[in-house]
Batch of 2 targets.
Target 1
Amino acid sequence: MLAFSGLVLWKISVAKRHPDRVYIRPIAGLKAIDEAIGRAAELGTPILFNPGIEDFTNIQTLAALGVLGHVAKKCAQFSTPIIVTTCKPVMVAICEDVLRSAFDSAGRPDMMHVSEVRFISTQNDLAALGASALMVDRRVASVFLFGSYDYTSLLISEGGKIAGCMQIAATADYYQVPFFIASCDYVVMVEELFACSSYLSREPVMMGSVAGQDFGKLLLLSLLGIGVVLATIYGTGNPFNGYERLFSF
Amino acid sequence: MTDRTLKSLARLEVIPRRTIYLFLFVACAIPFLVPIRLPLHIWKETRSAFDVTSKCPPGKVIAISSSWVSGSQGENWPQYEAVVAHCMLSNIPFVVFAVDADPMAPQMAEIINQREAKRYGKVYGRDWVNLGLTRGAPLTMGAIGRSVKTVFQTDFQHTSTEDYAKLPLMKQVRTVRDFYCLWAVDYQPDLNWVVFLDPTGNLPVVFACAGIVSPTFYSYVSSGQLKGLMVGTRGAAEYEELLRDTYGKRFDDRDLRGNKLIVPLAFGHLVIIAFIVAGNIGMAARRRQKAAEDNR
Amino acid sequence: MKSPRTVTIAVTFVAGLYFILDFVVPPTLPGLSTRGVALTTSPASFTVEVPSNRPATYLVAKDDPLRPQILVAQRDVMGQIKLVPTTLRQIGPGSVVTMRRGPFEVKAVNGPTILTQSGATIQVEPGSGSFALYDPATGRRVRSATAGQTLQFEQRDAKVLTTDPGSIELIENGRRATLKLGRQSVVMKLSRYGAGTEIQLDGVRPGDTVQIGPNTYFADNRDAAAQFNLVITTMAFGIGLFSLGMVNGQTLVKRRSGWYLSAFFFGAVILGVAAGIGKYDDPGTKARAFSDFVVVQIIASVTSTVFSLLAFYMATAAYRVFRVRTGEAALMMVSALIVMIGQTPFGSYLTSWMGERYSSFWLPNIAAWILRVPNTGVFRGLVFGVMMGAFATALRYWLSMERMAGD
């Protein structure tokens, strides 16, 4: 854990000193965010943001909240109302706070009056249906589905498809990705979710942490490679087996 | 192929949504009207889940985390029913609790517990205890492992868990060491059970999950962190088959939910496959049609 | 605005640090711990003073049939005062404890002295409020003891004067040594895999591998942290209901469009609460039947209907997406079809004619292979990525480096 934290912190400090040295490849789904908000602005209808089915103790939800902040800021620039739906009561206050600070920083605190955070139901499926109903009722132009999802991924995204919304989805629950691919216009896949807010903010600290996590992965893979080689050579039942003695304590 | 055939085949590429809905509805409804029984192939994961549970020695209890509610009852109900029937048939006492679930979860579990108890003559408090709902995973999971009665001071009916006159089973349930294994029945059981409930990793953990999320869990079965896996309605039907093999008539003369539900599921799958094939035929036909038009 | 932010950062950091340390730090201080194989133990003891009696010393030994169980009064989550068992380590001079001893069988009663079957004597204090005899079977108080009864006794409001944690004789690195325990020493019993659990001194059996050292205090408050988490998450439910009530109440009062739906909301809440009242009554009662009716016949049916929509959506989504446009798509479709058919009874129906010899080619077995081998490989690769992503995000939040739009 110390090694991974060290790697991430080291890359952050590098990025702070040389911001130009860190590069995140373009992510199509995130590039489309401007297009989606622009579409809503042209049509004069709101956008809908759903931060997944989990509360703030889930790391994907935290990543989604980062994106919500940026989407809200963009919405404030285009004067596009934003509706946030959630199935976790505790997320209402948190999402409101994110919206408020985003609107304040964009110099549009008045946007809070036209935007809203809706808690629909603690039942995920009912919350998904409620969100789908909102998409039709409020003629939502674009839908953002970021965060952790269960089977309701398809319920909510098909609802958006039928309502004719432009949809961008991102989740690290990889078995839900196929459903999003089937019904959304853009999908940010699996671990890319965690790079979203860094990619959008372009802050050296955030970009550095993404670079650090890639280095962590590299370290993990090399350890895995060494482990495979050692286990193959010195594995159980092998005459050269010194490996078990090495790690027995 | 004539232009007319190609044209009509190309129509398969864009079948209206409602037509697909109708076919699917009919396919799923027929097996409910006409009883059909299909042969089952028992998967390795289901068998090992069954074997782990069967080996529970006297003096130990099985812990069941039942956090599902009506949304996923199509899959979790038969699963939970099969596990409870197994415990009751082989006289294994069990405690059931829900962590971070919908408040309805303990009630759904209790409905099944009482139905099964009536069938097999079991008594609440002695053969099973429903500890109700708690929140705050994963920290709570660790707390359950260290002291069950600290987390669950009362059972679901607000009887103190230290009232051994009413709940004699609780006398032998103190920490995770009194459990023989943990069954987590949920749409998507929480992997934190593997890590937090028994940090030493000695407690066998078995999951019963929905079919759709099962690909996530196979890697934990192969790594040995999960001792078995019951996948969706299929898993429940297989478990019932195993119970039938073991207990014969004692188990068989009843309505087998998993076996009943697997048939519409199978028919539904066939319809979806048929539409996928049709869609591809339509696409191929349209491409040919377009190529022919371009050539002209 | 600077100081509240600094405070938030500090609190987040400390809370995160505690969570990590409580998970990572062992219960005993690493460099100062002794590890060895236990031989014998000399029991821990403590002296107490009770209001109506002179100081007495109690031994906490396993073979003592009257080994006292130490209890302290604590408020539970419901606010009620409850006696909870504690350990000698957690009490000290000045603590007020309740001691429960027994059950024991009464052999003879001689005035204020009870002689038990095991030969021990107990001094009864008739009329004292701090002393009570109980029948362990019923939990009722017994006024006077008679021979042949099985009883338990409780000494309340005892003030602890001194505690002696005892000592242990063990073999450490091949040498025999006697170790005197400190007041805050933790005794851990180690399993074969090196993982340890805390036990009391009288729980040590000869031959056990134990580790003894000063307490690191992290593990002690784990349960309190878990309870704190529980309280916070439960409070969120109240917030949700309040938020819904506010939104729907305003719609209703101002007669906005769809006000009848808000009225329906309040009706549903009342129905839900009414159903909740009898949900744990005994089966057969009217309240329970009503509750079961609402849950099983109404809520379960509604949510199952919603869930079943998924099947229809999935069918149309699969139809729309599964098109063989490229070679990869063809590969994906073939494997998807195999897994789909293999999971249904048709899989074995179609291929079991091949016989046991070719059972590897049965559709369910091919489907299982796809799930167990290629799927597992892909999944593990993804997990590495997700884990590292989650780790970096968590680190950013923990150290308050996440730049939200407002920052």
Target 2
Amino acid sequence: DELLKSSRSRRWTKKEEKKYIERGEKDIEAMRQRMVDAAQKDFMARSSGKPAVYKLKLLPEVMNLLGRSVLQGALVDPDINLIEAIRFFLEPLNDGSLPSYTIQRELFTALAKLPITRDTLIASGIGKVAIFYTKTTKAEPNIKRQAERLLMDWMRPILRRTADYRS
Amino acid sequence: ARPGRKPLTGFADIDISGFDEQTMEDYRAAFGDGNEYEWALRMQAEADETAQDDT
């Protein structure tokens, strides 16, 4: 990432880069809202016996945004809280069923690449849904493994403070 | 892990009682108390039971 940043800064002036990130933050905020809406629409659809398609439809755009590595800081920003919207995408539907396998696979893979911080974890509660995936018998083994791996990584920043203090 | 055993992890059962209050608070905000989606697990189990009864 640092390399990417420095190569970008050679191509771009600081001002241009700042502008790109500011625009990116707006994109992330707008996407968060669209994701929340899609999750609600899927919930409503499932309540009335219709297929839940809204999250899946939006997923390519979500993945496109998550792939913009220059924006990593903003993607995990606890104030924008896009990660909470990812949690809404991964949550079970109101009939207890899981979102589509594509949603699970794509989002867990993307989460593993993001620099999730302690503040991101606290603001988003993403760990709660990851714990659910370790417990449900409905998830594929590879998804369960991804959830377990993420949890191991995410426990560290939360429990580190006490560990540091003790050592 | 023993072969054939369900790959259920003990993440929800981690004992955090030895940590300071702030850490426990942060932990619960981040990971909950392990029961957040208990309703979904229950529904899944019920659906499985119904499916078994139907066969």
